[in-house]
Amino acid sequence: MNHFFSMVTGTGARRTLTGRLGMVVHGCAALVALAVIYTTTIVYVDLYAMMVVFLSAMLALLFLNVTAGPKGRQDRPSVFDWCLVVASLVVGLYFFAESHRITQRITLLFPLETVDLLAASVLLALTIEATRRTVGFGLTSVVLVFVVYNLWGHGLPGALGFREVSYNHFLDIMMFTSDGLFGVPLRVAATYAFLFVMFGTFLSKAGGAEFFYNLASAVAGRRTGGPAKIAVISSALYGTMSGSPTSDVVTTGSVTIPIMQRLGYSKPLSGSVEVAASTGGSLLPPVMGSAAFIMAEYTGIEYRDIAVAGIIPAMLYFMCVYAQVHLRSQKLGLRGLSKEETPPLKGTLKNGGLFILPLVALSAALLMGYSPTFVAALATAVVLIVSAVRSSTRMGPKAIWDALAVTTLRMVSVVAACAAAGLVIGGISMTGLGGKFADLVYLLAGDVAFLALIISAILAIILGMGMPTPSAFILAAVLVGPTLLGLDFSVLQTNMFILYFAVLSAMTPPVAVAAFAASAIADAKPLEIATGAVRLAITAFIVPFAFMYGDGLLMVGGWAEIASTCVTAVIGVLLLSIAVEGYWRGRLLKCPRFGFGLAGLLFIAPSWWAVALAVLLVSMAVIATPHLRLHRYKVMI
Questions:
Q1: How much of the chain exceeds pLDDT 70, in percent?
Q2: Does the structure show a pLDDT above 90 at 516?
Q3: Model pLDDT for residues 207-248, shown as the tens digit of each residue
Q4: Rounded-to-integer distance, Cα 361 and Cα 125, Å
Q5: What letter would DSSP give residue 341?
Q6: What is the pLDDT of residue 426?
């Protein structure tokens, strides 16, 4: 019984397929990647047909590579897995063969045939099982709740009730239109999100990840708190390519966490630094992860504009983490790496400096207005060109083939989550729950915008607990977005606010998936790691409120306004970091510490009267702190 419960509620484990089967699966994964490249950059194909084939292939690969439960067989698929693989391929083939008829029919007017209903039912079940295996019971339960609500929620009293939706109606919208399973999330996963993951994979395989780690070591390794600063810089650089806080923790944390612990960092602190830095990587332009791509597709805002808007908030995020790491290291007397342990900057740039070019090409193409699909393809091509310059980094046919396969296998869990999110979005649209949810927030917050923002932030974090960032964002955007738009916030402000808190859910207790990933490496309790990470990244929970009331932080408005907002925000972040750590050239007493913290909040607030009051508070805090009066000020970092 316990085994059955564990299999039903737990996520599956990744299989390591070997022998002929491993070679075949690896080759099929690479072929899927080539097909995505071909259909997104070379030839135009029907979007519905493309997504049907893509989902079918990814589901088949998923059931081959992920066990049914945490204790499933990891050497080869079971008979049940093979049945699911065959079902995925057969259903995909049917939908592809009927794609022309499906796209030409009028929804709900032309009745579905019996075989249509059977194929759609099987695809629905396959999607739910794939979600359970890869994401776990959290998102799966949300999908199931919405399916039940769609089919039987009409019997509920009051505002939660709606017009009855038959099973045929439900499947028609969910499976035969672009409003359900094949909606925005899956469309993004099948196009430029896939290509950006490919870019990150190729850059890592070519040696780019190692270069960025060495660059971080050369720049910050010998400074106070050097290992932690390496984690901040390298995780930021890697995270903007991977777009997944959890995978970033596993990739860079396996190196940085042991180094931090070897030099005196406690187990929880080493994990907290890595989690805070890795989570911020998903907010760092130019890539920002797949959630930002979904935001672009969902809102119609150019991805370029989203990336530009994310620059200042992301810089403030990492400034906060970096400053706190510096202050904490000073307070604890933690040293940096020795000269022998850090690579020379000149040698690092000489050996791998060309890996900066793909990021430059990516950023330039975005700013020039090219589509995200073209940008990702261009950046990947630049990686291949750069890698070919030196024999030590050159990617041959086998390395390229492997990178294609790895990209596809990395995307299987993202595809499952995006497909599940599409089911939830379709259910919300079908029942009008989004508008009802907005009415509920209005009822709780009234006309008080700040209270509505707090409620929206909490809901975005709760919706994102245990879920991948893309799913968390799209759920929050559909449910919370209309409320904030109704309060006269812009589309960009609203969705950036939701994006931030959807990303932060990865490290927010009690369900902090990134912290759970770090706990295995750091050998510390996940809750301690998550709490420490939230403390290090405290600015990230404040800045979104600031840009909702003054969009200069999103690079909107005149340059004078943007510059002044940026300067005051930087000062505010540094003061907040000092207050949180309770240290600046020495330990601070409670009253000055409170003064620095309040002043930091006022500096971030977009108001000149708040800045004037903040200056007064800082002056009082300095006067009340003897060791600050007696020493000349030095640059903190």
A1: 95
A2: no
A3: 887 888 888 888 887 878 788 888 888 777 776 666 667 777
A4: 42
A5: G
A6: 87
Residue 518 pLDDT greater than 90, yes or no: no
CB-based contacts of 507, cutoff 8 Å, min separation 6: 245, 275, 276, 279, 514, 515, 530, 533, 534, 537
Tabulate helix, strand, coil % of the chain (nearest 5): 75, 0, 25
- At residue 394, φ and ψ (nearest 5 deg) are -65, 130
pLDDT on residue 141: 86
- Rounded CA separation 448/365 (Å): 41
Q: Is the dihedral of CA 618, 623, 626, 632 positive or negative?
A: positive
DSSP, res 14 = B
CA angle 35, 307, 364 (to 5 degrees): 75
**Is the pLDDT reported for residue 252 higher than 80?**
no
One-letter amino acid for residue 23 of the chain: M
3-state class of 587 per DSSP?
strand
Most distant CA atoms of the chain, gap in Å: 84
pLDDT at 119: 95
Q: What pTM was computed for the model?
A: 0.81
CA distances from 323 to 153, 188, 494, 497 (A): 50, 36, 28, 24
Residue 131: alpha-carbon gap to chain centroid: 17
DSSP 8-class letter at 40 = I
Query: Can you read off the two tokens belonging to residue 120?
Result: 């759609």
518, amino acid identity: A
Helix (H, G, I), strand (E, B) or coil at 583: strand
What does the DSSP assignment read for 217-272?
HHHHTTSTTHHHHHHHHHHHHHHHHH--HHHHHHHHHHHHHHHHHHTT--HHHHHH
In angstroms, the Cα distances linking 84 to 22, 74, 79, 93, 126 are 18, 16, 9, 14, 7
Q: Which amino acid, 150? A: N
Identity of the highest mean pLDDT range in 95-99, 201-205, 285-289, 470-474: 95-99
User: Judging by beta carbons within 10 Å of its beta carbon (0-12, 13-18, 19+), is residue 398 exposed, middle or buried?
Assistant: exposed
Helices (H), 432-468: 433-445, 449-464
Q: What is the mean pLDDT of residues 52-80?
A: 89
CA 636 to CA 615: how far, in whole Å? Answer: 19
Report the residue count for the chain.
Answer: 637
- The backbone torsions φ and ψ at residue 321, rounded to the nearest 5 degrees and listed phi first, read -65, -45
Distance of CA 594 to the CA centre of its chain: 33
Higher local confidence (pLDDT), 241 or 54? 54
Find tokens 């059955």 and name the residue: 4
Q: Which stretch of DSSP H or E encloses residue 604?
A: helix 590-604
Is it true that the peptide bond before 468 is cis, omega within 30 degrees of 0? Answer: no
Compute the distance between CA of residue 18 and CA of residue 26 in angstroms, rounded to an integer. 10
> How many Å from the N-terminal Cα to the C-terminal Cα in the chain?
57
